Amino acid sequence: MSQEALMTFAGYGKFFLTLFIFIMFYGYAYSIYKRQKTGERDFEKYSNLVLNDSLDSPPLEPRDRK
Fold first, then answer.
1. Among residues 47, 18, 20, 19, which one has the least CA distance to residue 32?
2. What is the C-alpha R_g of the chain?
3. Using one digit for the tens of pLDDT, what is the confidence trace for 3-18?
């Protein structure tokens, strides 16, 4: 294989890897948006965890002990 063919192959690889990561990121962002809108999960309480972080804080969600 020549140097030019390797560079072309690497360029296509980077392009498709970037495209794959882009699709995965936006799919994840859409799933978070959809779960927030339907009320399946409230992500705002997780963002408040940064502000209200202490040992005396109540848990965000109840634990299911099995």
1. 47
2. 21
3. 999 999 999 999 999 9
Specify whether the CB–CB gap between 60 and 49 falls below 8 A: yes
Place of tokens 């799919």: 27
- 42-50: long-range pairs with CB below 8 Å, 24+: none
CA distance 31 to 25: 10
For residue 50, the Cα-to-chain-centroid distance in whole angstroms is 18
pLDDT tens for residues 45-59? 777 777 877 888 777
What pTM, to 2 d.p., does this model score?
0.63
